Predict the structure.
Amino acid sequence: MNKIIEIQSLQETIDLGKKLGRLLRPGMMITLNGDLGAGKTTFTKGIGQALGIERVINSPTFTILKQYQGIYQLSHFDAYRLEGQSDDLGFEEIFDSDDICVIEWPEFIEDILPENRLDITILRQGPQQRQFVFRPNGNIYEDIVGELTNENNRHG
């Protein structure tokens, strides 16, 4: 079942990422859909902060993949430039590892993504306002979204 969380600022985007990051475990996958500038990388920064990553997280647009070590390893993908690439990219190995994977522009590599994952769409509602639509695929992700929305209701 989809869940929607509305946020009002850049800081709330980071805070929501931190809340999600605290719930993630090794081997989990998050996909982030949204227009350019919607806040995908900002949200990922919050996830990284929750995982204890001290390096600056920025968009892996040109490198396609950046990895960061924290409590768990975070593999941050930007698949935008992979449109139409059908050859073996070797990503399945990372998807099957204990890395927490965050994938921006997942539609470009949809055919190699695991079925069980948390799909998040970020919709721009105003200059800073965003609507996050969480679509869990798999029981563990349904539990996480339940916890996330309960925590968000308690803490605002």
Summary: The chain is about 30% helix and 25% strand. The domain at 3-150 is CATH 3.40.50.300 (Rossmann fold).
